[in-house]
Write a structure and sequence with these properties.
129 residues
């Protein structure tokens, strides 16, 4: 145990070469492992890019659908108001026609003609554009 440990220059060179070889092997193995992992993750990366593009397109489509839905809803509201005005005009016109019919039949129904005329004048003056 008390013997001195002696290294020759060749032993030192061999040890350095062994360490360098070990480093090279570890670096090569690491490069191969990184390359394999990159190759394995490549389909996921492509899939993620496709999904991101699809989500962006879907958001654009949803926004467009929402805008169109708002336009259509507003159109229905406008049309409903227009139909209400038309129905009101029809009621006034039908009252006037009824008064004319009553007068034609009786010849004496002047009061209903006056009311129908007043209603028709009120409607026309209040709803003229």
């Amino acid at each position: 145990m008390n013997e001195p440990i002696m290294f020759t220059p060749q032993d030192i060179i061999n040890a350095i070469l062994a360490i360098c070889g070990a480093i090279s092997v570890v670096a090569g193995a690491t490069a191969v492992i990184v390359k394999c992992i990159t190759a394995l993750k490549k389909p996921n990366r492509k899939q993620d890019e496709r999904l991101d593009a699809l989500e962006t397109d879907m958001k654009i489509v949803k926004d467009e659908i929402d805008r169109e839905r708002q336009k259509i809803t507003q159109r229905f509201i406008d049309d409903a108001a227009h139909i209400d005005k038309i129905e009101e005009a029809n009621v006034v016109t039908q009252r006037a026609l009824l008064a004319l019919l009553s007068h034609s039949i009786n010849g004496n129904d002047i009061e209903s003609l006056k009311r129908a005329k007043t209603d028709l004048e009120d409607y026309l003056t209040s709803n003229s554009k």
